[in-house]
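Q: Sequence in, structure out?
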Amino acid sequence: QKVARSMSRRQLARSYALLGDLQQATVIYEQELKIAPDSFEILQGLSNLYLENGHAKRAQPLLERILDMESLIPESQLHATRRKLAIVLASQDSFAQFKQSMELLEKNRRHDGSFVVADRRAMANVLATSSDRADWQEAVTTLEHLEDQQPLLPNDRWVLGRLYDQLGQTQQATDQLSAAIESGTNGTLFVRHYVANLIRHKKLEQANLWLAKLQDQEPDAIGTLTLDVYLKTAEGQPDLAVELLGKYSSQSDDSRVASHTDRLVVAANIATVANRDAASPALSTFAENALLKVARLDQAQLSRLVTWYIQQERPDDGLVLVADL
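A: Exactly. Output:
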């Protein structure tokens, strides 16, 4: 009877997932995991939900537990779990974890020394996280060879587009990112990266068109605000960028960021990054004043402003500030 109940609950969770209610599906799987912590099916289902929700770190220990059950699960599932864990580890910006990712994928190599398509795709994703240009080129070559055999998935095109961009192949980057967006998958993720790519390469008219679409879909998102500020700065309108940041930081209630202090910090950071190439006094002054307000509201945050002065090559101002406060 307990087994039947558990199977029924899992079926319910899968139904929620199919209907797009990933949160409710996750709740059920988490409850079931407490009852059956060594169930491969539950570990697999919950780790997949975490990954779909963007919670890679929550998925990691579950994937590791599945690998600990190596002798008890089908080889195909073992290989799939290695691929998932490899991508999760590689995303954490650590050379040790990058190396571990590559070692996991090597275990999936077939007896003839080759990889199945899914492993080659995972390898490209892992190599794309490297800071080594040679790894980027290897990832590009892998995806290009894959494209010769079958149509690329939208995420493949997104990864390939970003790699082309990093390698300075602007037109190829634009083509791949545009194709990924046109697929209609992954919500606004591809759009945000595409707009950033267009701004970086000074294709500002196109960037405005795509930003307008993003503003329709996610008008209140921090990412949308950030891109709007970057675009106005690139268009030589830093005063309008400052106006946007001022409105955001002065909002009385905001579900995106918890407090007024946090909004000031976020706005200052956006202004500072936007100003790296623009050297706009307006953006610089805004960032400085925002961090001054933060330091006065909470002296524990004083180090933020001191660090900012150092980054702006104004260490003496930082010393004066410490003395004054």
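The chain has a mean pLDDT of 86.
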